[in-house]
Write a structure and sequence with these properties.
Belongs to the TPP enzyme family. This protein has about 575 residues and is α/β, with parallel strands linked by helices. About 35% of the residues lie in helices and about 15% in strands. It has a 7-stranded mixed sheet. It has a 6-stranded parallel sheet with strand order 2-1-3-4-6-5, sandwiched between helices. It has a 6-stranded parallel sheet with strand order 15-14-16-17-19-18, sandwiched between helices. α3 runs parallel beside α5 and α10 runs parallel beside α13.
Length: about 575
């Protein structure tokens, strides 16, 4: 058997670790690795038009599958383009390995063409970033990088000079065991007993849930029933906890709705379950707080804790629920459910009057129709900005749908690239990119990637010709909007010119038919929907406490839009309340 070179060994290890594709843009320093992929069955090279797209796509694939995903960039500018998508993957706890190819090893440190220092540059957005400077480091360094990415749920970066990649590997890589999944973490009995005692002592307990409740829906519901607790959620907890939830009181934060804010402030004990909710202004400072998280470094960094519990949510609740005394008083829970329903009733009317006649089209109406027409197991990728608002308030999770966005990093232009990664995992599953015109146009070149690979992604473009969220921030700060207007083309015509299905919608009565046709189309499709740029309801008075970023009180929330089918869920929960 011919001796492997380092690039072949690299690709062989990735393949044995379960990697099925590598996203990137080819370049001279990367050529040995790309050629090794060409000659290796079972792993494909996905050519994108921008390396930032490669990183976003890998991050989305990792979030959908829970397995390692890989992206790559050539030396200097090529791998620097990865950095934004890698920040997003890292902050989303997505296991991603990035290959940063490098200039010839003999030229490092001498100001060579395209020279950077990727092993240093990526340290802030990775758990592990090291350079292979000698073939003998393979395969141990790559194995270490893989184990960091999977074991710590984040990014690892391997820097590989092109000349080293082309050198003979010292030995064929051994069949070494590789970490491919993370263990569950159970708290100690002392912490479980302390938390159980706090719950038993409290009259009013609220659960606030984040993405760490993934896979723990049944356990959270059983626990909430036993202690008669309202259940609120952060945006990243929506897809895991909102569905089939008779204790739901909505979402807190800038995009919040319902009674989540009240439930977290009017309780005796607030339990944060698997959430690293970043806006501490929405958290109470005068109630007891316990936090459960599998990442110990996140315990207590948002608020002062009375108890920190290190463990994953499902295992913690499996241990905790049998130890707490059942509560029989539903007064607090029922009060919060009533407040939640009343709050939703108050805002749902905002965008239900004459929506089928309003021109430009209400974006809320678009989101509600998308929610109704999309498949039960659809994957939604959501652009940062106003699309986050529509996703938070109109998409209905059901335990099978996924909602992915740049919810922690907050990058523009994430939706289309993430849709690429999501669609590659399963061509038969519906993937809908909810894109804003600003985000879409930023990385619009990778719409061509959909066409090139015939990926059946459906791009629903909310085209209000502005950077809507930025404009809102300016208004809240008392500033006139400036630099937020976009002069856009007919994006549907652009899509058709690229070889995809494209349709432009300017009237509400055209919307349902256009979306149905696009969703039924077998290839990539884009629906360019001209939406109302003035769809936000701004309070008549802007107070000084609204100016500081996102630190808004729930009673003075700026975004006062509708809430879609969530009002029906709230009404259903009220019907289930026991009657005296």
């Amino acid at each position: 058997m011919a001796k492997q070179n380092v690039a072949e060994q690299f690709v062989d290890i990735l393949h044995r670790a379960g990697v099925r594709r590598m996203y990137g843009v080819v370049g001279d320093s990367l050529n040995p690795v790309v050629d090794a992929i060409r000659r290796t069955k079972g792993i494909d090279w996905v050519q994108v038009r921008h390396e930032e797209t490669a990183a976003f796509a890998a991050g989305a694939e990792a979030q959908i599958t829970g397995s390692l995903a890989v992206c790559a960039g050539s030396c200097g500018p090529g791998n620097l383009h990865l950095i934004n998508g890698l920040y997003d993957a890292h902050r989303s706890m997505a296991p991603v390995l990035a290959l940063a190819s490098h200039i010839p090893s003999s030229e490092i440190g001498l100001g060579f063409f395209q020279e950077t220092h990727p092993d240093r540059l990526f340290q802030d957005c990775s758990h592990y970033s090291e350079m292979i400077s000698n073939p003998k480091q393979m395969p141990r360094l790559l194995q270490t990088a893989i184990q960091h990415a999977i074991g710590q749920s984040g990014v690892s970066v391997v820097t590989l000079p092109g000349d080293i990649a082309d050198q003979p590997a010292p030995d064929k890589s051994p069949e070494s065991a590789l970490v491919t999944s993370r263990p569950t973490v159970r708290p100690g009995d002392t912490e479980i007993d302390k938390l159980a005692a706090m719950i038993d002592e409290a009259d009013r307990v609220t659960l606030f849930c984040g993405s760490g409740t993934a896979g723990a829906h049944a356990e959270v519901m059983e626990f909430a029933e036993k202690i008669k607790s309202p259940v609120g959620h952060a945006l990243r907890g929506k897809e895991w906890i909102q569905y089939d939830n008779p204790y739901d009181v909505g979402m807190s934060g800038l995009l919040g709705y319902g009674a989540a804010y009240e439930a977290t402030h009017e309780c005796d004990l607030l339990i944060l379950l698997g959430t690293d909710f970043p806006y501490n202004a929405f958290l109470p400072d005068d109630v007891k707080i316990a936090q459960v998280d599998v990442r110990p470094e996140r315990l207590g960094r948002r608020s002062k804790l009375d108890l920190a519990v290190w463990g994953d949510v499902r295992e913690t609740l499996r241990c905790l629920t049998p130890r707490v005394t059942p509560k029989t008083n539903r007064k607090f829970l029922d009060k919060m459910l009533k407040k939640h329903a009343d709050a939703l009733e108050g805002v749902i009317k905002a965008y239900t009057r004459k929506v089928e006649k309003h021109i430009p089209i209400h974006p809320e109406y678009v989101a509600s129709v998308v929610d109704e027409l999309a498949a039960d197991d659809a994957v939604f990728t959501v652009d940062t900005g106003m699309c986050n608002v529509w996703a938070a308030r109109y998409l209905s999770p059901n335990g099978k749908r996924r909602i992915i966005g740049s919810f922690s990093h907050g990058s523009m232009a994430n939706a289309l690239p993430q849709a690429i990664g999501a669609q590659f995992t399963d061509r038969g599953r519906q993937v809908v990119s909810m894109s804003g015109d600003g985000g879409f146009s930023m990385l619009m070149g990778d719409f061509l990637t959909l066409v090139q690979y015939d990926l059946p992604v459906k791009v629903v473009l909310f085209n209000n010709s502005s950077l809507g969220m930025v404009e809102l921030e300016m208004l809240v700060a008392g500033l006139p909007s400036f630099g937020t207007a976009n002069h856009n083309p007919d994006f549907a015509a652009v899509a058709r010119a690229a070889g995809a299905y494209g349709v432009r919608v300017e009237k509400p009565k055209q919307l349902v038919g256009a979306l149905k046709d696009a969703f039924a189309h077998k290839g990539p499709a884009l629906v360019d929907i001209v939406t109302d740029p003035n769809a936000l309801s701004i309070p008549p008075k802007i107070s000084s406490d609204m100016v500081t970023g996102f630190a808004l009180s729930a009673s003075k929330i700026v975004l006062d839009g509708g809430v879609g089918r969530m009002v029906q869920m709230a009404r259903s929960n009220l019907r289930n309340l026991p009657r005296p």
